[in-house]
Amino acid sequence: MKGSIASAAALAAFPQGKVHGANEKVIMGVMGLGGRGTYLAEKFAQRPDVEIAYLCDPNTRRFARAREAVEEAQGKRTKLVQDFRKILDDRNVDVLVNATPDHWHGLGTIMACQAGKDVYVEKPLSHNIWEGRKMVEAARKYKRVVQVGMQSRSAAYSKKAKQYIESGKLGDIYIVRVFNMMSHPMQKDTPNQPVPEGFDYEMWCGPAPKLPYNPSRRWLNQWEYSCGPIPGDAIHQLDLARYLLDDIPYPKTVFHAGGVNALRDGRETPDTQLATFEYGRLTLLLEAALWTPYMKKTPVDVRDSDRFPNWPFSSTKIEILGTKGFMHFSRHGGGWQAFDAQGELTHSEYGRQGDKEHQDNFIDCIRTRKKPISDVEIGHQSVLLCHMANISYRVGNQKLEFDPKTESFTNCEQANKYLKRTYRKPWVVPDNV
Amino acid sequence: MYEQGKKVPHQLSIGSRLIGAGLHRVLFSVGIVVVCCHCSYSKWLKISNITVRQEPTELGGPKTIIEYDIEDPNISPATPAYVFVRYSKDETNWQLIETDCLRGNGFDIVDKPGHKKIIWWGTDQTSFTDLIQIDVRVRGIQMVRIPAGRFIMKSLPGGGYDESKKINPSSNLPLFYMAKYETTIAVYIDYLNEIGGEGAGWNQRMTDSNRCGIVRHINYTYSAEPGRENYPITYVSWYDATNFLQWCGLRLPTEAEWEKALRGGLYLDGDETKKLPNPMPERRYPWGNQAPNADGVFRCNYDGTDDGFDYTAPVGSFANFSSPYGICDLAGNVAEWTLDWYSTSYHAGLDGFRMVRGGSWMAVPAACDAITGATQLPLKESSIMGFRGAKGPREITLTY
Asked: Quick one: A137 exposed, middle or buried, by C-beta within 10 A (0-12, 13-18, 19+)?
């Protein structure tokens, strides 16, 4: 990176967050113009109460798709930048939408908070446990609204499921099973390549090591850049499970089984992850894999419809087992169904996805300064499960005990080495944010 | 173009009452619409002097003979026409005549100009004895031949590479043909008017004068805003593009075909003859490796107005900077839908992303190269995306 991060850091002393009137547009910059970033940019741009002032990506080849979508939606031009600090430096900007790869979620969000911006950051919240806590600290210190892109929380059918569980109709809940069964291709082993023209690879790497450029090496499969493809998707269901159970706090232990079993292509992150989280008498089970083609995400014609997925082959379902009843719950607006002790259907609720409601909630909170539904602390608590499972795997699938006060492990020093990453200068998350 | 219920003056319309020799009774009368144009490539290739007659066969019913002239001097084995025929029994519902039902030298790939003859026979489609009139429409598209052989495929993930595919510096494709130009507004309007109705293939954004320019009339007919005929069609979804091409009997190119068309094979005359080695088989752009704006020369339509265009440009505006095969506008102007899906499980269950290749009038110059691509949901309608047709094997296998 050219220079340093001083520009945004200088703003830290004088955060410039402004108070919004009800009729004032929220000015946003979007960092990361992949599929999700472009989607968010377009959706926010379609809102009458939002203006997208900046689109940012180190790869200029990504500009056109997002720019066209945004300018079509808002009828107004937007600035294109490769360096997100230009967004932070602009005092007219209220919000940074952070839709980068995992390794940029933490520092990007912290720097935005320091610069007085509210943040919509994509899941998974952080690259590592320590970083997640620093993100919470930054949001609190600078009094920023930080919404995490775990939009399933905002879906009305999720709330109804939570209420159903709270009514006691399922009895006492002792087991929750979270599924994330996908089908990923093998990575190809190809030579390193020159960085394409128009791509600021230095900036793309940011806090992570600057490995030789190799487009066939998927960042999702490398620890330096990612929590792994399973946590990157399973975080939605893990967060939903926590939501349905009234945001259960830290588990006491984690025990991971699995590894790189089927997709042995040089990847670092597991393709098979079975994790058991013990919360006293409640046990949360994660069952996830990347080699199960018969398991399907909620089909597009089921999402937002009066239909349910084919439960046995639903790859992103949650099963809640109580002493009186059982519930299937499907992400993506797939709805839920509950059954009694005799296995008889007791309630069906069709689903509608919560993307718009999630964005509504964020904009409302920018005006009211209340905590959003997927506040940064909630995002931290949910992604913590992913990090704990990964660390258990990285120390040889050991059962680990976790201390919530220190957010560290008490029975394995080796595990604690994975609580924090090594940051590449100058992109270092400071101890004191 | 067409107005509902009549044919426009510049299109030749011939009605003829034929008496089948030996049958001694009126078989049918034939209305013929010739779709032609006066500009070089905004519409279909010029086809004239169409006649349709019927002759008896010894054992079965009559055979229908369609004759026409196609005189475009650019038609050659390297740059043939793709000719397709559509017919209607009621002037409302039109059908493509499958090539399996045709014989002769005037349909599908036509590689010489001159008088052409098509025999349409052998199916119940030729049994018009109970009809008063049919209409036949013959249309031609300028294509370019891409000989079979190896080429260097270098598309990258950052530019939209599909991880599910193999990547290898030496890939192989069978013979295929690709449209020389991006599909124009004029041609697309002809399609809209023929399929009729309130708007399959149509959306309101197409009225944007700068980025598209189609006028929809009260009776659901369509015309181009003056001067917009030769611009590429935009705001078409992947489904719109594939529906149009199925209407023609074509399909979208695959990513591999698109990339080979831009860069050329290792031998421009194909691996069978190998007489014309490609001087730059790894070229970055259709014209070579010079940047689109190098030395103050503008070689394609990219972001900004320096190239002379604020939005899209008429197709063929940068014909001097076409691909080694002479295909225009693969760099810039509009990014182009391809047949390929972007497949990772992250999108399983969605109606999967499709790949769009090439830069556009809104892209940075570097993005107008051979490897740039993007994922788009198939329902996306964008002012920076269009398409062109391809003709080749139904099953495409990329070999290594």
From this structure: middle
By DSSP bridging, strand B108-110 and strand B133-146 are unpaired
- Note the pLDDT tens digit of each residue in B78-134: 999 999 999 888 888 899 999 988 999 999 999 999 999 999 875 565 555 444 567
HSE value, Cβ hemisphere, 13 Å, CA-based, for A168: 0
**Pairing state of beta strands A50-56 and A26-31?**
parallel
Residues of B with CB under 8 A from a CB of A: 156-159, 161, 163-164, 166-167, 205, 303, 335, 343-346, 348-351, 353, 359-360, 362-364, 366-367, 371-372, 374-376, 382-384
Nearest Cα neighbor of A147 from A133, A135, A159, A130 is: A135
pTM for this structure?
0.87
Mean pLDDT confidence for A96-124: 98
Paired with B285 in beta bridges are: B288
Cβ pairs bridging A and B (under 8 Å): 95
Tell me what the mean pLDDT of segment A96-102 comes to.
98
Helices (H), A142-259: 156-166, 201-205, 229-244
pLDDT surpasses 70 at B16? no
**DSSP, res A59:** B
Query: Two tokens at B138?
Result: 């013959």
3-state secondary structure (DSSP) of residue B223: strand
Taking only the tens place, the pLDDT of each residue in B185-194 is: 999 999 999 9
- Residue B350 to residues A106, A300, B377: CA-CA distances in angstroms? 29, 5, 9
Determine the residue type at A428.
Answer: V
Disruptive mutation site among A61, A181, A182, A189 for chain B (greatest number of B CBs within 10 Å): A61
Q: Inter-chain contact A61–B167, Cβ cutoff 8 Å?
A: no
Cβ contact (<8 Å) for B372 and A61? Answer: yes
Q: Please name the residue ranges forming H helices in chain B.
A: 185-195, 238-248, 255-263
Distance from CA of B120 to the nearest CA of A (A): 42
Which ipTM value was assigned to this complex?
0.83
Question: For chain B, first and last CA: distance in Å?
Answer: 46
Identify the pLDDT of residue B375: 85
CB A348: neighbour CB atoms within 10 A? Answer: 12
pLDDT in tens, A131-184: 999 999 999 999 999 999 999 999 999 999 999 999 999 999 999 999 999 888
Strand partners, B173: B149
Smallest CA–CA distance from A58 into chain B, residue = B158
Written as six digits, the tokens of B8 are: 């426009």
Q: Is the pLDDT of residue B36 over 70?
A: no
Place of tokens 């006649």: B51
Q: Which residues of A touch B346 (CB under 8 A)?
A: 182, 229, 233
Report the run of H or E that residue A282 belongs to, with start and end. strand A282-289
